UniProtKB/TrEMBL annotation:
Pfam families associated with the record: Lactamase_B_2
GO MF: 5'-3' DNA exonuclease activity; damaged DNA binding
Species in which this protein is naturally found: Amphibalanus amphitrite (Striped barnacle)
Domain Metallo-beta-lactamase as annotated: residue spans: 33-138
Keywords from the named record: Exonuclease, Hydrolase, Nuclease
Swiss-Prot/TrEMBL GO biological process terms: double-strand break repair via nonhomologous end joining; interstrand cross-link repair; RNA 3'-end processing; telomere maintenance
Protein name as annotated: Protein artemis
UniProt-listed InterPro entries: Metallo-B-lactamas, RibonucZ/Hydroxyglut_hydro
PANTHER family: DNA CROSS-LINK REPAIR PROTEIN PSO2/SNM1-RELATED, PROTEIN ARTEMIS
Basic and acidic residues bias (residue ranges): 384-399
Region feature Disordered, mapped onto this chain: 351-435
Length: 435
């Protein structure tokens, strides 16, 4: 059973705001918040109905990070939204009305991704994480989440990314660690023959740039990507230098399987490396960092979503009055997510209202032929996945961190030690350099 979204875009106590949904009842809102540019958070964003609502407003009402605004306008499909964009500086509160204040905070999920803190409405302080991957100490660095004394502000409701809130995903390898694994597979293959090539199969539209950068640094080669991505990365200069529109100048690709540049005859033998998380989850390969599918086909575990441990850290640190899971993981239930987080959730009716379970295939497209099939093909029966390398996730014990703990299970630093730190780091760098 695939994961299901269980967040419909509306926040209790903030009827004037819609987040990451731009259709149906959300069109009754007067402020529209977009956390990042993955398609499962952009439903209705290119619709005439939304444009009509936005045109009826006196000021731009589509709020997003400055970096997301730059990326969004690189796509012709969304060009008509340009006059309605209201870019937010990360970490800087924006007064929307006499009482309503919204602050974008780093989410460390993909370039431009942010969480939103809403204050002043009938719902009290509400934090919507969108998709995120943060450690507790990164929350402690966020000034907007703390009062003048450096204590975390009371949070009435936490709408949280629970994509991997299952016991098997208590920890996930850091993205840097995943990148090193990819690099090893790449260099091992390229060094074997001068015409060998590699394709990185990335499911989401973007969010893997750290790996491109790492490969470029280590091999000196740029990564071939399609014209749409070239256009996108023109807005990210640090990445633009690591990619190329010219397939013949490189042996590294991140192109769709079946692309002309990857077909037989257009180059040397190809090793395929697919970056994913769900594959490992569905195949019970919880301890693997790499997975050999047979031939020159590999999977590497790469997650830009928080692990169960990281979500727990967030809940433990913020101690919200209510937690609203936004996703039910595969083969799980809302009840078990809530139980794992050890919190009271929104009333069940509200959680399930007006929201149809929807398979989400933005970050990974399941290919039934790949899932488990290789083992059947080779052995005639399902076998445990071939483990290539065991991960040893970086786990910081609470004792290793400085400062007080707000609750027994909290593992984050003292906010008073960190509250002065500005959270204005370049949004796209923070995810990868910090984990
Ligand atoms: Zn996402
Ligand atoms: Zn290519």
């Amino acid at each position: 059973m695939p994961e299901r979204e269980c967040f419909g875009g509306l926040l209790t106590g903030y009827p004037e705001v819609a987040v990451d949904r731009f259709d149906g009842r959300c069109l009754n809102a007067s402020y529209f918040l977009l956390s990042h540019l993955h398609s499962d958070h952009m439903r209705g964003l290119d619709s005439a109905e939304l444009r009509s609502v936005l045109q009826s407003q006196p000021q731009p009402r589509l709020l997003l990070s400055r970096q997301s605004a730059a990326l969004l306008t690189s796509w012709p499909r969304y060009a008509a939204l340009a006059p309605h964009l209201c870019p937010l500086e990360v970490g800087v509160p924006r007064q929307l009305t006499d009482r309503l204040v919204v602050t974008a905070l780093p989410a460390a999920h993909c370039p431009g991704s942010v969480m939103f803190l809403l204050e002043g409405g009938a719902g009290g302080n509400v934090l919507y994480t969108g998709d995120f991957r943060l450690d507790g100490h990164q929350l402690a660095d966020m000034k907007a989440l703390h009062d003048a004394d450096g204590h975390p502000k009371p949070i009435q409701a936490l709408y949280v990314d629970t994509t991997f809130c299952v016991p098997q995903r208590r920890e996930l390898p850091t993205r840097s660690r995943s990148a090193e694994s990819v690099l090893r597979l790449v260099t091992e293959w390229l060094d074997r023959a001068p015409d060998n090539r590699v394709n990185l199969d990335c499911k989401a539209r973007y969010g893997y740039e750290h790996i491109f950068r790492r490969l470029h640094e280590a091999t000196g080669m740029r990564v071939h990507v399609d014209a749409e991505k070239i256009q996108l990365y023109e807005r990210l200069p640090d990445i633009a230098r690591c990619v190329t529109p010219c397939a013949s100048e490189t042996r590294l690709h991140s192109c769709r399987p079946g692309s002309t540049c990857l077909r037989d005859g257009s180059g040397g033998p190809l090793r395929s490396i697919t970056l994913s998380t769900m594959f490992f989850f569905m195949n019970q390969a919880v301890d693997c960092l790499e997975y050999h599918l047979g031939g020159e086909r590999y999977r590497v575990l790469y997650s830009f979503h928080a692990s169960l441990g990281q979500v727990r850290e967030m809940v433990s640190y913020l101690r919200p009055a209510r937690v609203v899971p936004c996703v039910v993981p595969p083969n799980s239930s809302l009840e078990s997510v809530v139980a794992l987080l050890g919190v009271a959730s929104e009333p069940r009716l509200e959680l399930q209202s007006s929201r149809l379970p929807t398979a989400r295939a933005t970050h990974w497209e399941r290919r039934p032929s790949e899932v488990l099939q290789p083992h059947r093909q080779h052995t005639g029966q399902r076998q445990p996945p071939k483990e290539i390398k065991r991960i040893r996730p970086k786990v910081e014990s609470p004792g290793r961190r400085q400062g007080h703990q707000r609750s027994p299970q909290s593992a984050v630093g003292a906010p008073e030690e960190r509250a002065g730190a500005a959270d204005t780091r370049p949004a796209w760098k923070s995810p990868f350099d910090s984990d």
